[in-house]
Amino acid sequence: MKSLPACRALRAAVLLMLAVPAFAAAPADEAAKRWAQYEPSFKAFAEADAKSPPQPGGILFVGSSIFRQWTNVAEHMAPLPVLNRAFGGSRTGDQLARFAQVVPPYAPKVIVYYCGSNDLKAGAQPEDPAAIFARFREFSERVRALNPETRLIFASATRSPDRVNRWEQVDHFNALARAYCAATPHRFFIDLNPQLVDAEGRPRLELYKDDKLHFHPPAYDLFAAALKPLLERVWREANAR
Predict the structure, then answer these.
(1) CB neighbours of 11 closer than 8 A, spacing ≥ 6?
(2) How many CB atoms lie within 10 A of CB 150?
(3) Cα gap 110→231, rounded to integer Å
(4) 221 near 228, Cβ under 8 Å?
(5) For the chain, what is the largest distance between any 2 Cα atoms, rounded to a whole number of angstroms?
(6) What beta strand segments (E) does the chain contain?
(7) Is 177 in contact with 154 (CB distance < 8 Å)?
(8) In a domain, 49, yes or no
(9) Residue 94 belongs to what H/E stretch?
(10) For the chain, how many helices (H) and strands (E)?
């Protein structure tokens, strides 16, 4: 007959084994939920590609809704060959999860990346910006593994009025990305925030929609004016060989 401590140990082991599937299922459930959110966007991408196959070796915009809602980015950047494949609501982990669907099919020479705002906003407590940055760096390294000559421009996370209490985390994330780009070949940083404030450094609320996160068209005009000169230079560099 087993002793009382032995019975307790056996019972604990059985309970642990029963609990493991529940814990193991959680990441899969979350992944399925997030894919259900993004699947319509990817179906639309596939339909657009079938209707008008994009030429490989162009400029690919990737990221979250800040870029997804830049619906006239190709016109803003013309005659540069720009394709927008951002999907709304995405976080840096989603860019990694969907990397194979978003990047390799287009074989871009230049990528413009905006993602991280949703990570910084999610949850009751802000996530460590270093962890968010690490996922961007992983994205960058996957790009390098795919093609070491691909250029990548990181567009800064915006200090939007809807998350004033997290501006410190936004600034930290941007600082990490800026330092990484400065120290890494073929990586570039563009700060969008100066376009969004007045002479006193206050957010220009007229540029924002009611949610104080997303933008009205004039904001994208400002982004284009800031980004296009850098993109033109990087594009020339990417085609110099």
Answers:
(1) none
(2) 19
(3) 8
(4) no
(5) 83
(6) 59-63, 82-84, 110-114, 151-155, 187-190
(7) yes
(8) no
(9) helix 92-97
(10) 9, 5
Q: pLDDT value at position 163?
A: 83
Q: How far is it, in rounded angstroms, from Cα 137 to Cα 77?
A: 26
In angstroms, the CA 197 to CA 213 distance is: 14
Dihedral Cα 151, 73, 219, 134, nearest 10 deg: -30
Amino acid letter, 175: A
Q: What is the CA radius of gyration of the chain?
A: 21
- Distance, in Å, from the CA atom of 10 to the CA atom of 8, rounded to the nearest integer, reads 5
> Each residue of 96-119: pLDDT tens digit?
999 999 999 999 999 999 999 999
Task: Examine the pLDDT at 153 and tell me if it is beyond 50.
Answer: yes
**What's the CA gap between 176 and 119, in Å, rounded?**
15
Neighbour order of strands in the sheet with 151-155: 82-84, 59-63, 110-114, 151-155, 187-190
Distance CA 103, CA 150 (A): 11
Closest CA to 127 of 94, 157, 170, 98: 170
- Same domain? For 29 and 135 the reply is no
Distance from C-alpha of 233 to C-alpha of 231, rounded to nearest angstrom: 5
Structure tokens given for 102: 């978003």
Q: Are 103 and 62 in contact (CB under 8 A)?
A: yes
CATH of the domain at 141: 3.40.50.1110
The domain total for the chain is: 2
The predicted-structure confidence for 164-188, as pLDDT tens digits, reads as follows 889 999 999 999 999 999 999 999 9
Domain that holds residue 33: 1-40
